[in-house]
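Changelog-adjacent note: as of this version, every example in the card shows the full chain rather than a window. The one below runs 1005 residues end to end.
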Amino acid sequence: MLTKIYTRFTALLLLCFITSVSWAQDAQVSGTVYDETGTPLPGATVLLKGTTTGATTDLDGQYSIAVPSGGVLVFSFIGYTPQEIEVGNQSKIDINLLPDLADLEEVVVVGYGTAKKSQLTGAISSVGSKEIAELPITDARQALQGRAAGVDVTQPGSKPGSAPQVRIRGRRSFNASNEPLYVVDGIPIVGGLNDINPQDITSMEVLKDASATAIYGSRGSNGVVLVTTKRGTKGKTTVSFDGYYGINKSLGRIDVFNGPEFAEYKRESRRTSGEYPAGPATPEADAALFEPVELESLELGRSTDYPSALTRNGAIQSYQVGVSGGSDKTTFFVSTNYFKDKGVIINQDYTRYTFRANIDHAINDKIKFGTSTLVSYSERNGENFNPMGGALAENPLGKPFDEEGNLIFLPTSDGLRTNPFAEIVPGAQEDLTKNYRIFNSIFASWEITNGLTYRVVFGPDFTISRNGRFTGSQTNARRGGDATGSIFEEFRFNYTLENILTYNKTFNEKHNLNLTALQSVQEDNLEQSSISVLGIPAESQLFHRLGDASQITGANTNLVQWSLMSFMGRLNYDFDGKYLFTATLRADGSSRFGENNRFAYFPSVALGWNIAKEDFLANSNSIDQLKLRVSYGSIGNQAINPYQTQALLGRTSYAYDNSPAFGYRPNTIGNPDLRWETSTTFNLGLDFAIWKSRVFGSLEYYITNTSDLLAPQPLPNSIGFGGYTTNIGETQNRGVELTLSTLNIEKGDFVWSTDFVFTKNTEEIIDLPNGDDISAGRFIGQPLTVFYDLKKIGIWQLDELDEATAYGSVPGEIKIEDLNQDGVINSEDRQFLGSAVPDFAMGITNRFNFKGFDLSFFLYGRFGYMIRSQFHTGNNSLAGRYNNLDINYWTPDNPTNDYPRPNVNQESAKYASSMEYFDGTFIKVRNINFGYNFTPEAAERIGMTGLRIYTSIQQPFIFANYRSEHKGIDPEVYLDGEQGVGAGAVNANVSPAVTSFTFGINAKF
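Full-length structure tokens:
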């Protein structure tokens, strides 16, 4: 009887439970998850608290889930703070998630895999798609500037298509490129990122210390930049359109003398030599000095501003259509983009077309494959052409056009100066580079067993490039001579094949083990051909029928091949998430070295301690993260060209039986014992987050010593060779890096956050085999780039006549510091003036969000460094013949210490090199961006699921003494020649700095 009652009672309870569940499941809740700007978040998780029941938002951020009326929903997304909402009687719940900028569970790409941010032991900086999207940029590397600590990015001028220069933790090598390795979707690439559309990139990770970069061995010697492109997510298909259009304007003008100023400058240059009487100008003296066209211009008040006339309002525009989506088995992301940057200098522009298809497919639960395919085509005009140099030198008192508007080829009687406007006549100059590229990353993965996965990656990379150059007869280069033309072509096929085994296992819920093994091979084949001619019969042919020319002045073909074979093993271990250990060993074998030293081995080890997980901090209300990291390891550099270890022949000419003939002679000395450059790095890092992650960041200290530097050493010419390549010397880089992010205000709909990046790197030569090498600009204890010259301390004044005479000078000439006080100015008075290495660099970004509005501005600065301005060398000769920068020069009535007195008897001023050096410190407002996100309801009314409009200003301000006081263009624009003598120079023929005003739209359908 009791059994029967018990059975009926149990059945009744079960029926009540089932009924309650069925009632609970009848409540269907839907809505949309947005980020802090009101943009839908695809892939966000919506979980019923206390259960495993959940849903994922689709590409429009929408979800639908069945929950009981008393249930609580937990909304979460990587990088955002989770929020809990009690359902109650609600059937529709929309929510805005706020950033958790210090999210420790964020997954970071580390090379041959990923890792949680909290488990990293190496020094890694990340730049995401948000930072990239804030800037209308040509090259993704520009987004790293001021956004990644330890990364020094400089932009070499405003020419469209020019690639930025990237240095990670300073320069290490004398002779090799110090450019980092770029890895796109797992494939190391040869060359930069010019062909890749920045809008296709979802993140860039910068690997800086040996623990992070050792997995790439010799290729990672200068740091590694991992580029990950966008991929599809399962859900309904989403179509997006992103476009912007902007106007480029010169930021100010290059200030040279106008007509009256040039006339007075020319007079003063003759007063110095006694060819023009002292005192005010007179008509009689002017008639003897100026030619008729100059006198006519002075009488008419005619002055031609050639530099301004060669500039225009440029334009920058980009239009992209993307389609993404997928099913449980297949996801895809497809995009196409058109980008064009029309420069402010006529005949300078860059156009790029890209198509990308990223596809992932799961055959079953164990086997997956996919591809990332990029097809790119670009055209660049004016890479080697710039008429600005001639315009800056042209006499403003000349006459560029006759009364009928026809161009006058010689505006004055100076036969070495032609009309700069002749350079931009259609068909006069042609400098066109076409580039075709197909880049693939094809992978397949197989989960062999639980935790053990095999992955194969194949990356073929095809590049075809052609530069065509034509210079017509009526140009300054030809001055009426025969037209010239040339073609330079390259075909490159590079491929990488990698086999990767990974094993993940957790033991006893506390011991986490990850093993990675790699075998890799990379090969590169580069074919080059060139031809140059003189005497093109019809200039309309440009460079398209060089066979019709009267003379071939050069022809050549070339083949360069190299290969790299590698093996790598990596162990990651952590105990309970508290104690972290990473060990890596990589072996690289390069065809560039001789058999004696073909292989080299690069080990690294790193330790991490998550202090915040210890019991004594586990319940802390203020410390959310505190992790200490330390690493030590070595990486190499194959810093020589292919075949450089071999003894090579060179062609020579000689007389054979009184007839000219060609032969071959030994050209280089081989060195099969060349060793790899090796950089050994110690890194100490601290990651922190406090006050519920309102303040977080990382602090790094590092020392990198690079030994066995590969560099040429001179030999006496009497032996028949100028030099040979060997291993010499040692350099050191040490520095401090700080990355700091703060959530300043989070009140209601208003959010203000700040990102701050600080980098200080000290570069030093530690050892040279024969001590200081003055001819190469290398000095022990100094950076790789140092300026060693005479020091200008002013201008000799009238009351210093006797002292000036004692030094062989006169008032108005440059006064040089007599370093050794011997009464003579000579090479012994040279001294260290400064270096192109900055004391520190910093970037700061502020972001504000209020309801649908967002505002951000980004400042970047480099401080405490020197530049050598070839721009001044070429445009500040003060010889009274060519036009000159409008500087404050010395006269008896203007006793300045800035610049010397003009002198017609000098091609350039005495001790002119001392006027090349300037403080390069600058602060730039890089970007101001203001936008508005429409509400979903407003977007839906016009047929969209999301809409944002915005406007931005690029580089509206440059604060620099070089620019404001010394008439320079931009102190950031310098060329790093790697070697000490040639580095740190601002080119003489750069384009003006540019400000861009853009308007854009981001729409989803």
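Structural remarks: The chain is about 10% helix and 45% strand.
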